[in-house]
TrEMBL record, chains A, B:
<dbReference type="GO" id="GO:0016491">
    <property type="term" value="F:oxidoreductase activity"/>
</dbReference>
<dbReference type="Pfam" id="PF01315">
    <property type="entry name" value="Ald_Xan_dh_C"/>
</dbReference>
<protein>
    <recommendedName>
        <fullName>Aldehyde oxidase/xanthine dehydrogenase a/b hammerhead domain-containing protein</fullName>
    </recommendedName>
</protein>
<dbReference type="Pfam" id="PF20256">
    <property type="entry name" value="MoCoBD_2"/>
</dbReference>
<dbReference type="GO" id="GO:0005506">
    <property type="term" value="F:iron ion binding"/>
</dbReference>
<feature type="domain" description="Aldehyde oxidase/xanthine dehydrogenase a/b hammerhead">
    <location>
        <begin position="21"/>
        <end position="126"/>
    </location>
</feature>
<dbReference type="InterPro" id="IPR037165">
    <property type="entry name" value="AldOxase/xan_DH_Mopterin-bd_sf"/>
</dbReference>
<dbReference type="InterPro" id="IPR000674">
    <property type="entry name" value="Ald_Oxase/Xan_DH_a/b"/>
</dbReference>
<dbReference type="InterPro" id="IPR008274">
    <property type="entry name" value="AldOxase/xan_DH_MoCoBD1"/>
</dbReference>
<dbReference type="InterPro" id="IPR016208">
    <property type="entry name" value="Ald_Oxase/xanthine_DH-like"/>
</dbReference>
<dbReference type="Pfam" id="PF02738">
    <property type="entry name" value="MoCoBD_1"/>
</dbReference>
<dbReference type="InterPro" id="IPR036856">
    <property type="entry name" value="Ald_Oxase/Xan_DH_a/b_sf"/>
</dbReference>
<dbReference type="InterPro" id="IPR046867">
    <property type="entry name" value="AldOxase/xan_DH_MoCoBD2"/>
</dbReference>
Length: 762, 762
């Protein structure tokens, strides 16, 4: 392998210019002749019976072209694992924001006005507003057929936990919880639906996983998936919030059918805050058994997680929460009992980290707590127990690459360098450092026994290469990564490669953008497809040049004879030679790649991700002991990325993950009172701002994973995961206070500092 | 092979409902936000120097967003074989209709008004208005660099013509000519251009050959073809007139670039009459040598053909005119000298038959003339000389199938049955019958050494099949034919198959709809691609069912074990099993098919079409000896179609070819006076109407060609070709008058009848 020219080198995102000049078309930039605007009437009650709906006044409003209620919709239940939702509420609403009716009108304003003319007669019921209430004896039922309000339970056990705890020198037990937070992507979610004259349905929408989405919409509408064509415009972020369809997807299709016109629905920010499925919020009880020398032996967890009113991905997320951290260290035994329960709150679902982040907060906080109690160095304990390359973990993951130890060492080292004095302003400001580790996946052989990706590549007669993938670019830059992979594999410049827009009628079948899988699995498929078409091209060139194809190389768009570099042809010449001649060259390759993993058995044991990522964040914080305010000063982010494809892209993922991680840790929280959201607006839902951003010191560890393309692994989610516990650990280092429940707001710190002083005074 | 279920059976066109309900979107139905309307200023002079163009007043008209002249356009010459045209005239205009300037405005009306505000200062030159003037010594030059006004010449010779003529019992010589006629498709041609934010150009247009078109537009604009994406809406007919781009294609792209908006140009009917390249109009001198027994020995032709002002396909058409009829019969020797010359008239180009029809008129008229002179039965002479299956013709065609003799016999037989009395109304009406033969191609290994087609097929996870082809459906029904071929090959119903719209970014590379090649070559590619994906599917099914794939059959969407028909799965089940599992099935196949032909050598010798079609039309006419009016009463159309895929489609092609053939023979003619068109309007350009349609008696001969899919050959052009000479022969049979020059108008017949009477009186 020679020196790389495209992979790992600086490469501007191929769509950067369109985006920064405002020319890129996002969903709301699209418009079609005769298009109507849809709006959805939502429940103001967390729990109520629908007695009657009267749409007659709304229908009379000039400009209103259609009003639908559950009576106008297919009554199919849909959802992922547990189908418990209909597109419009039938007899009952179950959370504030639940969809009740929808309107299509000639303008957004008219549609909005029409909503207020729809009269719904509710019989208000008492809501279930937290998980404790949900599981209490004699609790109200959110769904009449879901006994005990339980959506899903898990039990996992490896080794003999009880025996191991008995033998441990130390056993500690703590409780943790994390909060409901919203993905808050820049671009509100939405869709345009148009029924075509041939009876098929076109939907423009920015889904992260279009082929899953196509199936779900088909299920909701009761039609065959191939009758639906999803086309993706540019997408302004997803972070897990756009993996799965929302109710508005089938709703907009029904509105379009009813009115005979294309209909657009784009959520307002308030609707996003009300209905974008937030991160699953669990209560976690954790028990950790350690030996005097720092060996971590046994781990036990109990989880009670909030599903909200309907089940989306929370059941899958609970699985990740239950298992993944068990593979971060070389535990001898582990046991988890997890339960997902209904409440009358917004349905929870996936958000960067997908359950793994929550348990990381618990475990990585716990390790520091235990080490402090025993008097061990938490960095050394982590190093001692770290999973390593070649390991098969407790749950059967095969670590084909693992740079955890190197990440710990480098992050611990770097965060100490240049650290500020432990105190300032006469002791008012206290500073501390902390570290936390993480692991995650690059793919997920989860529900189906498939975790692959397909790619198609095609040469045009002018030697330009088209790349088709079904993986979505949400802004993270996979189009650029695919172009770089194709460029490097073929030996041609990135700007001669076109990565085509996502369209389910055309793009090869893929699973989509989640589980940090796109670079690894999608990129690998692209690499293999390009290699396949390269073989076709070299065969052609060999024929044209009268040279064995083994002697040919391609560099910078030119095929040449290695033994006689002057003997050469451009790719355009070879393509022209192949395509419009007797050669009848296809110069098109299609490939479906499924990584060499086995998936889980019925106990959840098995190697189920193409690759596994590991990392460590070192954090320096300062705490204002008067106000309780925490500031993150610096963050060292050491990640085993396998190999870097696009340096700027990796740094973008790190910056974004750190920002969202800090937000989750210190600021964000969806507050409700009696089931009524209190801060469903960016006015009072506190996101971090650019001023809160610490200095980031990225450390990239390249372990060259054997599965990923050019050795690369996913970096999308990992950058968020260790941020919260690292901050919590640094806070304890600074002021000796341990916060077990996110977010660590200034108010919470203020009262903790007050109590801490009092305890100290005792 | 079992009984066929889809191929050869009645099948409604899959897009019939959309079309007859007016829902299908043709180009002019499309609209995009911010779209402007383009109009082209055309030369009113057949030949003039442009001294100056002043656009300042046009630019001031409110609503005008851009005005372009040659100065705003890339100055590349483009065209097929001979690049002699620029998108807007530079210094000189060369025919009435030549493009001088273009406007984009917010409405068609404003754009039209703006044209009249553009002031062009012309210095009028004397025009060259016919081929004789063009080749006369000292003729004015249409293009300064084209000496003698010659665009192209051909000389072909096989055997020893001169020697053979000496040995023949009879040698006759006659002159023939055919006229300029317009394709007159229902939907005027046009295009919408939009420059995308990534710098690529999207063009919506109904081209017959999109990949050729993409290259030509790229050449005109001076950009790489892969930067252009051509998308096809529904198309309302082409007949050869939409194979190649027009000047408006690059013009609309330049207007869109200049204004930064999408721009639409749709030609008016008058613009169509002025600029749609008409059928090449030749003067033909034909010499035929026969033996007493009717053996046709030698043929010699001289052709002087009118190219018009610029060269489009006329040079290729001249080639067909020069050669094809030589392969209709078993001539011993043949020689053709052909010359294509410039005039200041509309550039001529392709129209159903593509040159072959013109020489058929000459030769098939000539045979009847000769037979009458010698006293032979022209039907028997044709039968005696007919080319037959297994022949290699004078020009090297290999006749893998040929049903000519059967067509002659059946047509001759059928036209005699039920014929009306030879006279009516006391001799005022005279009736006669005539017959003429034809041959044609199903494909054309012409310019490039490729004559293939590509197809991609893909199963979706619900078992529905998508078919992608780059061949265009102009209304002739190839989408339906492809769906039937796919259905038959796979064993699934037509309505589970989606034939996707044509889009150069997606559709596989194909040559397009011309040379009657789409069913044969395009259909074969579809058949092979479906067979390939079927093999993938059967392998999967074999695995799932634990049965050798050789035992499996597919019928009506179900895969079953031939030995145990109860053991079965639906295609949907097999696809689901393959796609979302460890099988990682691609279920996608791409194929490029090039028929097993060799192409021509430098002398034009060689087997260059996938298949060759033969046929014969028998016609019964009546002539009103007072008015000269000719009426076609009945037409028997016997065609060797290889095999029928869609019976209705074949009959549609027959009806259309007959109608256009009668129009060409009796009515249509583009008249000019000093280079100025006199009937550029459907008011005075006489098309035949439904009232002129004769009763059609179709006879389909199935020779099961070994190359075509299920044995099928092309039927698009053949149905027009023998119509004109058959009518001319029937006229001679009715009234003893031979017309050598098309069209055979009532006026022409009137004078001929007058002269005939006078000659009779002498």
């Amino acid at each position: 392998m020679g020196k790389r020219k495209y992979v790992g080198l600086k490469q501007e995102f191929i769509d950067a210019k369109e985006k920064v000049t405002g020319q890129a078309n996002y969903l709301d930039d699209l418009s079609f002749p005769g298009m109507l605007y849809g709006k959805i009437l939502r429940s103001p009650h967390p729990h109520a019976q629908i007695k009657a709906i009267n749409i007659s006044q709304a229908l009379k409003l000039p400009g209103v072209k259609g009003v639908i209620t559950a009576d106008d919709c297919p009554s199919n239940y849909f959802g992922l694992e547990i189908a418990d939702v209909t597109m419009l509420a039938k007899d009952k609403v179950r959370y504030v924001g639940d969809e009740v009716a929808a309107v299509a009108a000639t303008s957004e304003e008219i549609a909005q006005a029409a909503l207020s003319l729809i009269k719904v007669d509710y019989e208000v019921l008492r809501p279930v507003t937290n998980v404790e209430e949900s599981v209490a004896l004699g609790a109200l039922l959110v769904h009449e057929d879901k006994i005990g309000n339980v959506a899903k339970t898990y039990h996992f056990e490896r080794g003999n936990v009880d025996e191991d705890f008995v033998r441990c020198d130390y056993v500690f037990e703590e409780k943790f919880s994390t909060s409901r937070v919203s993905a808050c992507y820049m671009e509100p979610f939405g869709a345009i639906a148009r029924w075509e004259h041939d009876g098929r349905l076109t939907i423009w929408t920015g889904l992260q996983a279009v082929f899953h989405g196509r199936n779900e919409i088909a299920k909701a509408l009761g039609i065959s998936p191939a009758l639906i064509n999803i086309k993706e415009p540019f997408i302004g972020g997803g972070f897990g919030g756009k993996i799965w369809i929302r109710n508005f997807h089938p709703i907009v299709a029904v509105l379009a059918k009813k009115t005979g016109c294309p209909v657009k629905i784009v959520l307002t920010r308030e609707e996003e805050m009300l209905t974008t499925r937030p991160r699953v919020a669990p209560k976690m009880r954790l028990k950790l058994g350690m030996m005097q020398d720092g060996t971590m032996v046994a781990k036990q967890a109990e989880i009670l997680a909030d599903n909200g009113a309907y089940t989306w991905a929370a059941s899958k997320i609970l699985l990740n929460m239950s298992m993944r951290t068990d593979c971060l260290y070389r535990f001898k035994s582990t046991r988890t009992d997890a339960k997902l329960v209904y409440t009358n709150l917004i349905p929870t679902s996936g958000f960067r980290g997908y359950g793994n982040s929550q348990m990381h907060f618990a475990l990585e906080s716990m390790i520091d707590i235990c080490c402090r109690k025993i008097g061990l160095d938490p960095v050394q304990v982590r190093l001692k127990n770290a999973s390593r390359q070649g390991d098969t973990t407790l749950h059967g993951w095969k670590l084909r690459s693992c740079g955890l130890a190197e990440c710990i060492e480098k992050a611990a080292q770097a965060i100490k360098v240049n650290r500020l004095p432990a105190e300032a302003q006469n002791g008012r400001i206290k500073r501390g450092i902390g570290l936390a580790c993480m692991n995650h996946v690059s793919g997920n052989r989860g529900g189906d026994n498939f975790d692959g990706s397909s790619a198609m590549v095609r040469f045009h007669e002018d030697g330009k290469l088209m790349v088709y993938s079904g993986e979505a670019d949400l802004g993270q830059g996979c189009k650029t990564v695919f172009a770089q992979i194709a460029a490097e594999t073929m030996g041609m410049p990135v700007d001669h490669i076109f990565v085509m827009p996502l369209d389910t009628d055309i793009s090869p079948f893929c699973y989509g953008t989640y589980s940090s899988r796109v670079t690894t699995v999608g990129g690998r498929a692209v690499q293999l497809a390009v290699q396949k078409v390269k073989d076709q091209l070299l065969q052609l060139a060999a024929k044209k040049m009268g040279v064995d194809s083994g002697r040919l190389e391609i560099n910078d768009d030119v095929v040449y004879n290695r033994m006689d570099p002057g003997h050469k042809y451009s790719l355009a010449e070879i393509c022209k030679y192949g395509i419009r001649t007797r050669e009848a060259a296809e110069l098109t390759a299609y490939i479906t790649y499924d990584p060499p993993t086995q998936g889980n058995d019925s106990t959840g044991y098995g190697d189920y991700s193409s690759a596994y990522t590991y990392g460590a964040h070192g954090v320096e914080v300062e705490v204002d002991t008067v106000t309780g305010q925490v500031r993150v000063l610096r963050i060292v982010t050491a990640h085993d990325v396998g190999a870097v494809i696009n340096p700027q892209g990796v740094f973008g993922q790190i910056s974004g993950g750190v920002a969202q991680g800090i937000g989750w840790t210190l600021y964000e929280n969806q507050i409700q009172k009696n089931g009524i959201p209190q801060n469903a607006s960016l006015r009072n839902y506190i996101l971090m701002t650019i001023k809160d951003m610490p200095k980031i010191e990225p450390i990239l560890v390249e372990t060259n994973d054997p599965v990923g393309p050019f050795g690369a692994k996913g970096i999308g989610e990992p950058t968020l995961i260790p941020t919260a516990p690292a901050i919590a650990n640094a806070i304890q280092d600074a002021v000796g206070i341990r916060i077990h429940d996110l977010p660590i707001t200034a108010e919470k710190m203020f009262w903790a500092l007050q109590n801490h002083v009092k305890e100290g005074e005792k």
